[in-house]
Amino acid sequence: MSRQKDLKPDEIKRLFRSKGYDYYYQLQKPEEADFIFIGLDANRPPYSKFGLVESERAFLKDGKKWCMNNGILHPILTRDPDNPIPGDTAALKYWKHALAVIGPLKNASRCSMVELLRWPTFGACGFCVSSLLRPTNRKYLAWLADFISESKQKKFFMSPSVIGMLNHTELKTIVAKVFPRREVVMDAAKRRPHRIGKSNIHVIGHFSARDSKDRISKTVSHVQEVFRKYPK
Q: What confidence tens digit (pLDDT) does each residue in 118-131 have?
């Protein structure tokens, strides 16, 4: 196997900016998706270790096209008996969970993954609140809040931890656009998949969470029911 070099942060930013985006997303373009999954951050593993750099680059250029051409949801789900990915790899767990929730591959073209942090984190340099509160990220979160509140036909999925972060004291003005009532935010802390009031926001377990099989099963059932109610 030829030696590969992982994508650097600046290369990822250039790739997305060349497409007209000043933030990171995965799968479908957010404005063209029907279902938006919002996470905390996209923490990237060393794809070079698994020989997946070129696949990852192609996936980031056009996730929808890559999925359809390769018949799997994400490069990290590629099965290579000569270079297996350890089962405890966080990204592998995340995308296995995502695959269970999204279901048939045809649904991938209707789904987009976006994060509270507009650019990915790498390795041990994971999510931190200070990064969330930087002026450039606040501006991105203001856009995200507007996108959620104005996209009445789209369905958004968030974990309680994401909603908790959006309810951070220093982000109250942004949260108010998405969650107009305090009790709605508190309702989101319930430990079960559910819709928040009559909004277009649904609370589910985070794909990286160490959830029980029962809770994962309930998340899958909830999301699939939403998919069925809103056919293409």
A: 999 876 555 677 88
56 near 7, Cβ under 8 Å? yes
Please check the confidence at residue 183 and state whether its pLDDT lies above 50: no
Give me the sheet containing 201-203, strands edge to edge.
25-27, 111-115, 35-39, 155-158, 201-203, 194-195
Token reading at 53: 């750099």
Looking at the chain, how many residues does it have?
A: 232
Look at 67-76, 86-95, 165-174 and tell me which has the smallest mean pLDDT: 165-174
Q: How far apart are CA 73 and CA 70, in angstroms?
A: 8
Using CA atoms, how far apart are residues 212 and 202, in angstroms rounded to an integer? 19
| Inter-residue contact 38 to 115 (CB < 8 Å) | yes
